[in-house]
């Protein structure tokens, strides 16, 4: 039987991993500059955590989660997102008592049973950041700044920050009443997939990607019409702070995001280079989630970004240099004695920090040279039987063609990092 990967999953081949490592290094660098520390939460949790944390009326919980019963008869779910897990950890490990403000980030795979599409698989990868403990709207702006800085460091400049405030439960309750008055008389006209949202959570209609639903919502009352003074003040501070930070944004009163735990600030970063599904990242404030999951009332804000989508945009702008270093040395030997010496030389070079490979297929010298070229090696080190007693071997620069006969110590000193890599030359 020939096995194939499960639909909605992708093999990241060795030829592709350099892109991922490059992006991960940028993420970690940006997070360090903003003083966010990495957190690594489990791949799966109790199903109830995501049901309560994300919202039982959401498509993620109702239709997309990978849920199974384990041998202990517990309902377990592969994480569809990371915020609920981070909050669970924050509560369980009493992180709020160890520091008044907890700033963490994560990188890793998530799982959702949805239709595979460009930039989104059933196993996909996200990075994100969470700041727990501050109600200051300025940290909302910092979270947006972190997300934007990653894009900038990736060379991405074609994006737009869409911004809204989804207010508080009290404000949303007033808005809900008026929104229901608007949509109930035309409820039968909504597509079936959105019709069920009307009684459960009509605000989520604004999150629909269906054109008919958006047409029917033309003229519907918007949340911003119901803001109280406190909500409006906090939203103004976020906008003023973004302006001070030099981050352009566009207000989008229809932006509500796809998760139920958001309060006040909500944002989405979009890029036209992604096509119709144009969201690169998004997030917002979720002041009620920690208490909802059993902790003390704790203000919090965060974001998540799709790594596949970020890489798609990087490729769309022509990004091809991912900082990958070429192989330093390919050691070449044909006879048994030469191969034994080649193995020893490879060890000595590796011990000195060089990247080295050699032949394990008993190929000819000519074939080994082709392999060195295929691997984009910078140097070929030839081992000839006559050279072994004297301990001096021929090192060839494959770019210039220059060739020298050197001792092992001289070889190690001669092989320096390329000047273009940013390392010492």
Write a structural description.
With 425 residues, the protein is an alpha+beta fold. The chain folds into two domains: 244 residues, BirA Bifunctional Protein, domain 2, CATH 3.30.930; 93 residues, 3-Layer(aba) Sandwich (Rossmann fold), CATH 3.40.50.800. The chain is elongated, with a radius of gyration of 28 Å. The protein contains 16 helices and 16 strands. An eight-stranded mixed sheet has the order 1-5-6-11-10-9-7-8, with helices on both faces.
Question: Could you write a compact summary of the structure shown?
Answer:
Helix content is 37%, strand content 20%. With 425 residues, the chain is an alpha+beta fold. β12 (329-332), α14 and β13 form a beta-alpha-beta unit.
Write a concise keyword list for the protein shown above.
425 residues, alpha+beta, BirA Bifunctional Protein, domain 2, Rossmann fold, 2 domains, 16 helices, elongated, disordered C terminus
Mean pLDDT across all amino acids: 91
Distance between the termini: 52 Å
**% residues in beta strands:** 15-25%
CATH top level assignment of the largest domain: Alpha Beta
Quaternary status: single chain
What is the strand tally? 16
Sheet with the most strands: spatial strand order: 1-5-6-11-10-9-7-8
Shape: elongated
Unreliable stretches (pLDDT < 50, length at least 5) are: 419-425
Radius of gyration: 28 Å
- Give the CATH superfamily of the largest domain: Bira Bifunctional Protein, Domain 2
CATH topology of the largest domain: BirA Bifunctional Protein, domain 2
Q: Describe the main β-sheet briefly.
A: 8 strands, mixed
Architecture of the largest domain, according to CATH?
A: 2-Layer Sandwich
- The number of domains: 2
Q: Count up the helices.
A: 16
Residues in helices, as a percent range: 25-40%
Helices and strands: which structural class?
alpha+beta
């Amino acid at each position: 039987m020939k096995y194939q990967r499960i639909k909605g999953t992708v093999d990241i081949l060795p030829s592709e991993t350099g892109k991922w490592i490059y992006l991960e290094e940028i993420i970690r660098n940006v997070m360090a500059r903003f003083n966010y520390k990495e957190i690594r939460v489990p791949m799966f949790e109790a199903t109830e955590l995501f049901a309560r944390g994300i919202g039982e009326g959401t498509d993620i919980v109702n239709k997309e989660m990978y849920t199974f019963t384990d041998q202990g008869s517990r309902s377990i779910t592969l994480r569809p997102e990371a915020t609920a897990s981070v909050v669970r950890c924050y509560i369980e490990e009493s992180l709020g008592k160890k520091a008044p403000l907890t700033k963490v980030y994560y990188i890793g795979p998530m799982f959702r049973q949805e239709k595979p599409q460009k930039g989104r698989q059933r196993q996909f990868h996200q990075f994100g950041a969470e700041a727990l403990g501050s109600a200051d709207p300025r940290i909302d702006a910092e979270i947006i700044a972190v997300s934007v800085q990653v894009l900038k460091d990736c060379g991405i400049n074609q994006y737009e920050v869409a911004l809204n405030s989804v207010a508080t439960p009290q404000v949303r309750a007033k808005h809900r009443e008026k929104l229901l008055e608007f949509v109930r008389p035309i409820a039968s006209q909504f597509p079936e997939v959105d019709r069920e949202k009307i009684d459960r959570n009509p605000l989520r209609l604004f999150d629909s990607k269906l054109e008919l639903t958006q047409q029917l919502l033309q003229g519907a009352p918007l949340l911003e019409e119901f803001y109280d003074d406190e909500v409006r003040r906090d939203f103004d501070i976020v906008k003023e702070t973004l302006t001070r930070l030099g981050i352009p944004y566009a207000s989008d009163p229809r932006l509500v995001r796809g998760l139920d735990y958001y309060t006040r600030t909500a944002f989405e970063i979009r890029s036209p280079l992604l096509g119709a599904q144009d969201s690169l990242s998004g997030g917002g404030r979720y002041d009620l989630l920690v208490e909802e999951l059993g902790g003390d009332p704790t203000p919090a804000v965060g974001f998540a970004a799709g790594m596949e989508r970020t890489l798609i945009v990087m490729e769309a702008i022509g990004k091809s240099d991912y900082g990958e270093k070429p192989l330093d040395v390919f050691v070449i030997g044909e006879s048994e004695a030469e191969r034994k010496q080649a193995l020893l030389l490879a060890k000595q070079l590796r011990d000195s920090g060089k990247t080295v490979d050699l032949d394990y297929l008993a190929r000819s010298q000519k074939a080994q040279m082709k392999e060195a070229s295929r691997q984009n090696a910078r140097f070929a080190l030839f081992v000839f039987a006559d050279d072994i007693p004297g301990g001096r071997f021929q090192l060839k620069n494959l770019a210039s063609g220059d060739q020298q006969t050197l001792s092992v110590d001289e070889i190690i000193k001669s092989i320096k990092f390329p000047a273009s890599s940013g390392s010492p030359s």
